[in-house]
Amino acid sequence: MGHPASGDSSFLTAPRQRCLINWKLQTRCWKMGCFSFLKMMMFVFNGVIFLGGLAVLGIGIWMKVDGGSFVQILGAAAPQLMQLINVGYLCIAVGTFLLLMGFLGCCGAMKESKCMLLLFFVIILILFIAEVTGAVVVLAFSSMADIFIEHLKTWAVKTLREDYGRQDDLTAIWDTTMKELKCCGFNNYKDFNSSYFYQTHSQTYPTGCCLPPKRECPESELDSTKKGCLQEFQTFLSRNGRIVGGVALGIGVLELAAMAVSLVLYCQIGTNS
């Protein structure tokens, strides 16, 4: 039986070469599979952003076309804010921005455009830094919340005493608020004392403050279990604070994931050909 010559190394190196080629092919297939998966994740994530922007844009258009009363109510509640922004235009601007972001991310992933992916990464990074900065500012200046509550208290008591029962929009909003939160007045039922409603309804209180199935009722027939809407709203926030925090944390995680995916795609484009 013949044996290969000692100087012929092709017989020994051929299996190693085949193994090396197979390993390279498997590694390349794995990288291409991961690349395709990241592209799909990028497309899905930005598809959600696109749909969210479409919804916000629709709300903004509705507010400009058929939401005049809502804007007037917000302007009455916080006139100094209405001097800075218009809610309808703000929603339209935010919705348009989200639409562009979703379109940018989807096109960047599908067309494998490094320029679009880099631009998407930079914008998300700026938003993330702005959100973190805003959270730090809110924590550092938490006393501003007390100032806002005092302003809200002044406006709420004023509207209950002067406009409740006179302006249909405000009356409907207060009725809905008191029904949903099961409360009476802003601080308590005494906010209605000497009010327009109290004087024009034979010194009685609104239905939301009375024992069921009463409609308007005198002070002796008030529901003593109902507290002010401010206290009930604070209780609601304390009960659902974890949900709000969880949503904020989830948004931050999604932004980090979007930045990571866009950066990986940016680095991988051009290496898979």
- Tell me the β content: under 5%
Record field, number of beta strands? 0
Low-pLDDT residue spans: 6-12, 80-85
**What is the global morphology?**
elongated
Query: Rounded to an integer, what's the Rg over CA atoms?
Result: 31 Å
Number of helices: 9
Distance linking N and C termini = 47 Å
Structural class, from secondary structure content? Answer: mainly alpha
SSE inventory with pairings:
Blueprint: H1 10-66, H2 68-77, H3 79-82, H4 87-110, H5 114-140, H6 144-162, H7 168-181, H8 196-200, H9 229-268
Helix pairs in contact: 1-2, 1-4, 1-9, 4-5, 5-9
Name the descriptors.
about 270 residues; mainly alpha
Quick rundown:
With 273 residues, the chain is an all-alpha fold. The protein has helices spanning 10-66, 68-77, 79-82, 87-110, 114-140, 144-162, 168-181, 196-200, 229-268. It is elongated and about 80 Å long.
Description:
- The chain contains nine helices and no strands.
- The radius of gyration is 31 Å and the shape is elongated.
- Residues 6-12 and 80-85 have low confidence and may be disordered.
- Helices cover 73% and strands 0% of the residues.
- The protein is mainly α and 273 residues long.
